[in-house]
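[Discussion] Sanity-checking designs against the backbone

I'm trying to build intuition for which residues belong where. Below is a structure token string of 94 positions. I'd appreciate it if someone posts a full sequence so I can compare it with mine line by line.
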């Protein structure tokens, strides 16, 4: 990832620990996706005779794979949200 925007010079990591917000976004989206995916499947399986243990084993990779897939998007989302809340000051450019 570039340190600064090649066009306007805006520094992406605006302060120490800046990406903590992106990590929070990533974890929240991952948890929501897991709930959205697994709860209906678990309910469907609970009403059938298929053991829930297989669902649990099959879903083990989700908490690892989903954050990796969503990492870049979480950073973009966090930067968009942050720039809405704290617009860029002139001294942050170049
Ligand atoms: Zn720019």
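Best answer:
Here's mine. Compare freely.
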């Amino acid at each position: 990832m570039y340190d600064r925007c090649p066009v306007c010079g805006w520094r992406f990591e605006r302060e120490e620990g800046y990406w903590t917000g992106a990590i929070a976004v990533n974890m929240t989206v991952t948890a929501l996706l897991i709930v959205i995916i697994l709860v209906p499947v678990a309910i469907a399986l609970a009403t059938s005779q298929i053991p829930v243990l297989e669902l649990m084993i099959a879903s083990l990779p989700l908490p690892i794979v989903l954050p990796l897939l969503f990492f870049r998007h979480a950073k973009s989302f966090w930067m968009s949200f942050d720039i809405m809340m704290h617009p860029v000051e002139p001294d942050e450019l170049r």
